[in-house]
Amino acid sequence: MIINVKYFKNLVFILFFILPVASAAPIGAMMRDGYNILSDNVATTWQEPQHYDLYIPAITWHARFAYDKEKTDRYNERPWGAGFGQSRWDEKGNWHGLYFMAFKDSNNKIEPIGGYGWEKTWRPLTDDNFRLGLGYTVGATARDNWYYIPVPVLLPLASVGYGPATFQMTYIPGTYNNGNVYFAWLRFQF
């Protein structure tokens, strides 16, 4: 098989120089638009809250397939603590919230977390009080074993709610003996 050198050079030039520059504009625009939407939603939730929320951490579960048994045997899975936030429902019926929580982590040390959460909300029954949610949270946490240096978080959110009460949850991904934690809390609107 004979390779045409001129053809090959042109292909390399297109793949490594033209395509990245051409595709950078749409990616940059998407990132800028996403940032603007996020910052606008955070500002609106801060300035125009419809509800105040009480957060009660309920359970931390370390995925048994991802941990040595001796570690899970000594880890705390009752995250005693509390939190406070403010939230709103947008015109599409989706939830936006700003929150701060502090709870006992896996090592029984206080862990603060705060941030912004968003959930797309569905009301599958004729009773509008019942709802399901799926979204994300972005914020920061700090842990004793990391010298309380703030660490950014971007995590999935899911929830089941009825009236002013919502059971909300996330999953913290990780590696073996680190992360892979299901964390859930109750959120009460007033």
Labels describing this entry:
alpha+beta; 8-stranded antiparallel β-barrel; Porin; 190 residues
Task: Describe, in plain words, how this protein is organized in 3D.
The chain has helices spanning 5-47, 69-74, and strands spanning 51-62, 81-89, 95-104, 110-122, 130-141, 151-162, 165-172, 181-189. It is of the alpha+beta class. The chain has a single domain (50-189), classed as Porin (Beta Barrel). The radius of gyration is 22 Å and the shape is globular. It starts with a helix and ends with a strand. The mean pLDDT is 90. The record marks 71 as: Role in lipopolysaccharide recognition. Homodimer. The record marks 176 as: Role in the phospholipid gating.
Write down the oligomeric state. Answer: single chain
CATH architecture: Beta Barrel
Uncertain runs are none
Terminal-residue CA separation:
74 Å
